[in-house]
Amino acid sequence: MISMVGNNVIAYTAEKETVAASDVKLLSARTNPDPSAPLGGGDIIVDEGSLVPAGAFGEDEYSEDYSSGEISVYVVREGDSLSQIAEMFGVTANTILWANDLTSGTIHEGQTLVILPIVGVRHVVKDGDTLASIAKKYDGDADEILSFNQLTSASQLAVGEAIIIPGGNMHTAAPKQAPQSSSVTRTASAGGSSSGGYFTHPLPGAVRTQGIHGYNGVDLAGLAAGSAVRAAAAGEVIVSRSSGWNGGYGNYVVVKHGNGTQTLYAHLNSVSVGVGEYVSSGQTVGGVGNSGRSTGIHLHFEVRGASNPF
Questions:
Q1: What φ, ψ does residue 89 adopt, rounded to 5°?
Q2: Which of 31, 116, 132, 160 is the most buried (most CB within 10 A)?
Q3: Contacts of residue 130, Cβ cutoff 8 Å, sequence gap at least 6
Q4: Which residues, 6+ apart, have CB-to-CB distance to 304 below 8 Å?
Q5: Where are the beta strands (DSSP E) in 125-227?
Q6: If you write DSSP's letter for every residue of 231-286 in order, what string do you get?
Q7: End-to-end CA distance of the chain
Q8: In terms of pTM, does the model score above 0.90?
């Protein structure tokens, strides 16, 4: 059964069947109601230094493009189970637990869950691997690796076992970018300027401290905490989280735009908009901050469904 919540949020009702969390597809984006639409996500298995796409994952999508990775919002219905919801969206139960700060698989009717197609790396543990070495290799966080894989300590790592590094990054090739004269890039001046013909800059006056990483995201910094973070384009707010870890995003906002894309604004110190609110291009959605998995005051800005122009 499908029902509409507001104009754009689709709520699904899971079938009454038992599905083990270990049987669901890993790191895959939600299943689009339009079967002809592209599916994103997929496993990246790192084995003996090679990359092997697995599941519904296209080579061109990994090397050239970013799949839509649409973020979904699901309202729990009577009789739903976590494993059923995970199967419905093509993710793991752990993905839902991690993104919603849930410490157990207990959910209740009426609860709103954010379904993030969590980006990460699937690594097969080799002889000599340690939790610290794996975390360092993929820019991951040791505590997150333990939590996401439901391990109580590093001693539980077993050779041959596949584990997930949430937010892990591959370093096999540098992103394709125009040469820069320094390690940071000065962004548009105050007031913002258009880029790519659609998006305006979300944090005018900031510097880019990290290029494309995570899910088509960039880091923008250099302004004081609380500086206004602006909507890159007009649209409807579909996620607004003003507290919690939230899969490492901390306080964050997601806006769905009329062209089918979504933008995400993470690590905010404050949130200024609520779910269902329509924002105009350049409207303040929050203040830049240091919440979640963050090592300093900055904005992590993602574009889902299109290239990131910043």
A1: -100, 0
A2: 116
A3: 154, 157
A4: 66, 68, 69, 70, 71, 215, 216, 261, 262, 263, 264
A5: 162-166, 185-186, 194-195, 199-200, 207-213, 217-221
A6: -SS-EEEEEEE-SS-GGGT-EEEEEEETTS-EEEEEEESEE---TT-EE-TT-EEE
A7: 39
A8: no
- Spatial separation of the C-alpha atoms in residues 76 and 88, rounded to whole Å: 12
Q: What is the pLDDT along the chain (310 residues), one digit of tens a residue?
A: 444 444 444 444 443 333 333 333 333 333 333 322 322 222 333 333 323 333 222 222 222 333 468 899 999 999 999 999 999 998 888 889 888 988 888 899 999 999 988 777 888 899 999 999 999 988 888 888 888 887 888 988 988 888 888 877 765 443 444 444 344 444 443 334 334 579 999 999 999 999 888 788 899 999 999 999 999 999 999 999 999 989 889 999 999 999 999 999 999 999 999 999 999 999 999 999 999 888 899 999 999 999 999 9
Q: Please identify which residue in the block is written with the tokens 């996500």.
A: 41
For residues 265 and 184, is the Cβ–Cβ distance under 8 A?
no
Instruction: Record the tokens describing residue 155, joined without a space.
Output: 């001693």
Half-sphere exposure of 292 (CA within 13 A, CB side): 28
Are residues 241 and 274 in contact, defined by beta-carbon separation less than 8 angstroms?
A: no
CB atoms within 10 A of CB 195: 15
How would you label 280-306 residue by residue, b for 16+ Cβ within 10 Å and e otherwise? Answer: ebbeebbbbbebbbbeebbbbbbbbbb
* Residue 278 near residue 164 (C-beta atoms within 8 A): no
Give the residue among 294, 289, 298 at the shortest CA–CA distance from 269.
Answer: 289
Token code pair at residue 109: 């009717």
Residue 208 is given by DSSP the state: E
Give the tokens for residue 52. Answer: 């092997």
Of 257, 226, 258, 244, the C-alpha closest to 291 is 244
